Amino acid sequence: MSDQSRPSGVHQLAHDLIERVERRWASLSIAVIVLLALLAAFAGIHRATMPQSIVETIEPRIIHMQGEFVETNLGSAVEADGSVTVRAVGQEYSFNPSCIVVPTDTPITFRATSPDVIHGFMIEGTNINTMLVPGYVSVLPARFDKPGERLMPCHEFCGVGHEGMWARVRVIDKQEFQKLAAQQPRVTCDQQ
Amino acid sequence: MISSRRLIIAHFWLAFAVFGLALLLGAWQMLVRSPLHNWLSDPEWYYRSLTAHGTVMAYALPTLVAMGFGYAITESTLDQPLVGKRWAWAGFGLIVVGAVMALIPVALGRASVLYTFYPPLIGSPFYYIGVVLVVVGSWIWVALMSVNLRVWKTRHPHAPIPLAMFANVAGSYLWAWTSLGAALELLFQIIPVALGWKSTLDAGLARILFSWTLHAIVYFWLIPTYIAYYTIVPRAIGGRVYSDTMARISFVLFLVVAMPIGIHHTFMDPQVGAGFKFIHSIFTAAVAVPTLLTVFTICASVEVAGRLRGGRGVFGWIGALPWKNPIMLAVAFSFVMLGFGGAGGLINMSYQLDTTVHNTQWITGHFHLIFGGAIVIMYFAIAYDLWPHLTGRNFSNDRLMRAQLWLWFIGMMVTTFPWHWVGILGMPRRMAFYDFSDPAISPQGIYVTFSAIGALILLASGLLFLFILATGQRTAPMEAGAYTFARAVHEPAAVPAPLNGYALWVTLMIALTITNYGFPIVRLASGYGTNVPAVYVGR
Fold first, then answer.
1. Complex ipTM value
2. Is B368 a catalytic residue?
3. Does the beta carbon of A99 lie under 8 angstroms from any beta carbon of chain B?
4. In A41, A128, B175, B248, which residue has its Cα 20 to 30 A from B23's Cα atom?
5. Cβ of residue B190 closer than 8 Å to a chain A Cβ
6. Domain carrying residue B191
7. Residues A10 and A39 occupy one common structural domain
8. Could you tell me if B215 lies within 8 Å of chain A, comparing CB atoms?
9. Which of B118, B300, B529 lies nearest to residue A118, judging by beta carbons?
10. Closest residue to A26, CB basis, from B270, B293, B425
11. In terms of CA atoms, which chain B residue is nearest residue A21?
């Protein structure tokens, strides 16, 4: 009845059973993980949302003096294609501009960096979330559906004043924004 | 037979003494940033405390537990006295010196940079050198684990390495390799700047090097807990390990896939491209596999115990388990926390979902639940299980132990669930206080208060734990017998060669690190014009 070279009888049955059950569980685990990975790939390819893809560098020590992050260029700018680019700088311990204005229903690109240490850039209640690393430019596409005001804290430890580093984002109606943009090249809350 | 009792108990006592201090600091932090307390007049105290809390909990506690437990496993599973005991004491001495050297500048406010360093913020060089000494001390342990296994193997050339030892050495190799990333960051970037030899560094490169350490270190913290799941729990509750082979597969998988995934900590960073972020996301998903295998094997092993005790039916075995046994209680709590924490982890590792929670209180809640909850509660169980074998004294205060474990579990739930929730609402991490008078923030105040109450429960539990260990050293002497580990349902007579050694897995670990980290590191290290001047703190 029992094969001499293998564990006999009950033991062999139990052994086989254990292996079978284990293999099923392992296959199920792997299938779940593969499915999750495929979902992430699909959403990424269709650009539903994905992390920053291109690495852009910048000389951190001179951003105040030349290039796109000089003070007069900060704030929201309307591009030729109707989209809006928001440029901002995070530094110990404030954002510039400290209050950002953006229109509803418009493709928006945030471009931000830091001249000193690492900061965080997050708009509460949205998935707009990135790190500001000196030497690199953070680029983030976004779109707002509803008008309203949102908090924008620095979410990375940047020194003893970190807890005071909060900015605001004011989302206003598209038409209202266009009026503001017609009056000055860079829109911030200061002009409202 | 454990013969190096003093060595092991020294590791455990140092681990838990600093744990007690860090726990006190943590509870204080939770209190002062909640609406229960006025704003700190000097927020610097908060960051000082946070630096000490993180440095102790992330570096000192788990390293010392892994080392002490590792020595105990070596002597008891290999049945030979520890080879290189003097070196082991030297390693311990380095950790003591390093910890003191690091924590003095932290206490003085000269190194409030948090345990994750965040250059270009630069603190006192003594802080970083102290951390390096702690790590070097632990490398001695890694070498000793390897040497002791080799000595045993020459005496037992074909025998399967006992499971606990197999996992222990795997954990030590993982630690040796993963600690290298932060070591490179400290030695080549931070310390030269802290000493004033250089004045600039690349913050993007530093973040990538730190991520090399930051994720796999979590699995180094986890390995003693998993060893306890597989080799202490079934023995303590009268069961068997369901499958010795599956256990080995889980541990070697950790060795391979814990490493090449750290860039998921920098999904939101501008210095890495989308391709490597995606690759690391996929590997992070893969690291869930050994945990899922473990959940299955441990549940099955516990079921064996329930059925051996007369449990019947689909769920009847659960009631038949020895619930009065502290180890049973600990593993049940640990699994509940692992379940919630693991689910949160799958969200964090997701290439897309992370954007909603990155650097919010969700993340703080997540790793406190996984590390402080699922992992540390098993450190308690390990200490309880080992204590009579280390002290040679009676240790049977089960009621107090159960109360302590219940308090820890409840405290962790009350702390971390509201923490996750305010994270979803967008509350940022690492802040000395919040302006609860702001209408946009005030609704979060109540949840922060809940978390602070949870922290006080945790503090009570931690102090009770220390009390139980201390009383265990004053009871009547009693010989606890040999320290043993769980046996498998089918004890392996022989193990396939790849699962009885590390060559293949260590090779894979290093190769995958190179493929997944090589290009980003080389590219960032050859950066042009991205260096930034140091910002010195506390001067």
1. 0.92
2. yes
3. no
4. B175
5. no
6. 5-536
7. yes
8. no
9. B118
10. B293
11. B296
Please give the Cα distance from B258 to B251 (Å, whole number). Answer: 10
Structure tokens at B260: 């090449």
Q: Identify whether residues A71 and A130 lie together within a single domain.
A: yes
A112 plus A168 within the same structural domain: yes
Q: Which amino acid is at B398?
A: D
Q: Are residues A78 and A160 in the same domain?
A: yes
Which 64-83 residues of chain A touch chain B by CB within 8 A?
none
For testing the chain B interface, which of A157, A165, A168 should be mutated: the one with the most B CBs within 10 Å?
A157
Name the closest residue on chain B to residue A139, using Cα atoms: B270
Q: Is A22 on the interface with B (CB under 8 A)?
A: yes
The reported pTM is: 0.95
Q: What is the pLDDT of residues B60-86, one digit of tens each?
A: 999 999 999 999 999 999 999 999 999
Enumerate the residues of chain B whose CB falls inside 8 A of the CB of residue A163.
Answer: 43, 46, 431-434
| H or E element, residue B304 | helix B288-308
**Cβ of A43 and B489 within 8 Å?**
no
Among B275, B296, B434, the residue with its CB nearest the CB of A25 is B296
The domain tally of chain B equals 1
Q: Give the residues across from A91 on adjacent strands.
A: A94
Same domain, A134 and A108: yes
Triad B259, B118, B348: Cα angle to 5°: 45
User: What's the gap in Å between the CA of A103 and the closest CA on chain B?
Assistant: 21
Q: Which amino acid is at B430?
A: R
Chain A residues closer than 8 Å to B539 by CB: none
Structure tokens at B473: 């050293």
> Dihedral of the CA atoms B226, B227, B230, B234 (nearest 10)?
-120
Same domain, A45 and A62: no
- What CA–CA distance (Å, rounded) separates B43 from B37? 13
Task: For residue A108, give its domain range.
Answer: 56-191
Taking the C-alpha atoms of residue B185 and residue B538, their distance in angstroms, rounded to an integer, is 21
DSSP B258-273: SSTTGGGGGTT-TTS-
Question: Which of helix, strand or coil describes residue A35?
Answer: helix
**Contact assignment for A157 to B530 by CB distance below 8 Å:** no
Residues 6+ apart with CB under 8 A from A15: A7, B490
pLDDT reported for residue A3: 40
Lowest mean pLDDT segment, chosen from A35-39, B90-94, B168-172: A35-39
Q: Are residues A41 and A66 in the same domain?
A: no
CATH number of domain containing B137: 1.20.210.10
Contact B240, B190 (CB under 8 A): no
Q: How many domains does chain A have?
A: 2
Question: Is A140 a residue whose pLDDT tops 60?
Answer: yes
User: What is the DSSP pairing of strand B532-533 with strand A166-172?
Assistant: unpaired
Q: Which of B307, B309, B430, B487 is catalytic?
A: B430
